Amino acid sequence: MIALTAIAAAASFGRPRLLPHAARACVARHRAAAMEEAAADWSFLDAAYLITCPDDDGSNPRLDRVLPLLRQVGLGDLVEVRSFERDDADRIRGCYSSHISVLQEAQRRVEGKRECNILVLEDNIDVSPRLSSDTLAAVREYVTDPAAGPRDMVHLAYIMYVPGLRVERTSDARERIVRLLCTPDSVLGTTAYLVTRSGLDALLAEHARHGYSHGDAIPNVMARLFPESRYAASPMPFHRAAGIKSLVNAQLDNLRAILFLPTFYTAWERLLVGSGLSTNVLFPALVGSFAVTAVASTGSLVSALLAEARGEDVNLLLPAASALIAIPSLIVIFYGLALAPKPQTAAAPRESLSEGRP
């Protein structure tokens, strides 16, 4: 399944937003139906924030796009919009500072409370066609269950195309909640997440100890702090919008426009959850399968062309189609690898990340 969706994505590389009208209409209908069904009870939240950055002229088309979506899932009256100026000198610092700012505000608001649930969203959020009221109800039950065990964060959207990520089913009773087992390079993004009391305090304690380090994004800090204590809704109710440009690393926008198409990310999510395998296993297997297909199909195409040149009656369609599918797919993969951030290196001050934590 994942190979087929990667093939479809690769075929549209370079013009990913030009989906057929019927396909766009179908996705829109599924999304509208999902949102209508999934208006949820968000009363368990102690605070909810939407981080946004207006344009230089004061307009904010990103905010204009996302507010109607949030209203349709019952968050319109709960979310508090927090606007931040773009940090053109260091966009990573700008993202880090905006999240720390809303977390600090949340910490002040819940002072004295033993437990809390804080929702943080970014203005690049979109609603998944697989959104359901059952999934949102499972999230509510999980984060309010005192017997659920330690959990620092629950992602309502996360980036699955990262190294070292393994998705683990929690139990039959919680089939819609999965555990995210991570390495320091499993940078899951910050599009939509819930942070609990323990996670909130740990993040802000880490900020108080070290502050911002150049190039160290807030998702990197989360990956180091919470390698085994992050969870996620399954299937994801939200995701990063494919067509919204990044304010931090715009060089990946073309690739994101492919990877965050619903057909692609839902298939990859199913594979991660269903297999239980790490992305460190799945990625090489995917690349290897495309490489073998590319070599075999190219060889078949060359043989067919030679046979046709000798006057033989051959079918060129199948080998040509295989080559046209496998080779662009490999190009997309290696394009992503070329632009991917370098692996994190362990820094001496970060070795004590868990100090002082229960």
Spatial strand order of the main sheet: 2-1-3-8-5-9-7-6
Oligomer: single chain
Strand content: 5-15%
Count the DSSP helices: 11
Q: Give the % helix.
A: 40-55%
Radius of gyration: 22 Å
What's a quick, concise take on this entry?
The chain has 358 residues and is an alpha/beta fold. 46% of the residues lie in helices and 13% in strands.
Commentary on this structure:
The structure is a single chain. The protein has 358 residues and is an alpha/beta fold. It is built from eleven helices and ten strands. It has helices spanning 2-11, 21-37, 61-72, 91-109, 133-143, 197-210, 218-225, 253-259, 262-275, 279-309, 317-339, and strands at residues 47-52, 80-83, 117-122, 125-127, 153-157, 166-169, 177-181, 192-196, 230-233, 238-240. An eight-stranded mixed sheet has the order 2-1-3-8-5-9-7-6, with helices on both faces. A two-stranded antiparallel ribbon has the order 4-10. A hairpin with a 7-residue loop joins strand 6 and strand 7 (177-181). Helix 1 packs antiparallel against helix 9. The protein is elongated and about 85 Å long. The two termini are 42 Å apart. Mean pLDDT is 81; it is low at 1-24 and 346-358.
